[in-house]
């Protein structure tokens, strides 16, 4: 009989322990379900936002091409920007000069003389003896750029005559060649 009483006592405790375990398990399951559904709802709302497209942005872009002869040519465009990463990659070899709400200005140094100088540029000498580049022949007196004072007394007569009449520039190589040739007659910089 004592054995049955011990078993009855233990059975009561066992039932209590089983009841408590079931209660804790039930609460745990409910908590996990609530947490999982909240997480799922958050993930679904994140996905909705991730695929939301606001449309492309447009921006005024100014491109400045800066040539060896000092000429700056500007090109203005209106860019449609779908991705800022792609936009910056497109201009990675340009220098950013300005950026504002009105637009953005990039500059690129071109290792060449300007197209206008190639077509209509002449080296010449001013009345004051300054080696200059002219738009057209020097007699038209339209100076584009001045370099240095030339010691005209040291020039050979042919060189002086060429400068007075104008030496067509044509290309970068000839531009550099003429500057180098007359540099030995330089008196002072401008």
Automatic annotation (TrEMBL):
Q: Where is the Bypass-of-forespore C N-terminal domain?
A: 59-108
Give the Bypass of forespore C C-terminal domain ranges: 111-183
Membrane-spanning residues: 12-31
Alphabetized, the UniProt keywords read: Membrane, Transmembrane, Transmembrane helix
InterPro entries according to UniProt = BofC_C, BofC_C_sf, BOFC_N, BOFC_N_sf
What Pfam families does the database record attribute to this sequence? BofC_C, BOFC_N
Kindly provide the name given to this protein in its UniProt entry. Answer: Intercompartmental signaling factor BofC
Task: Identify the taxonomic lineage of the organism of origin.
Answer: Bacteria, Bacillati, Bacillota, Bacilli, Bacillales
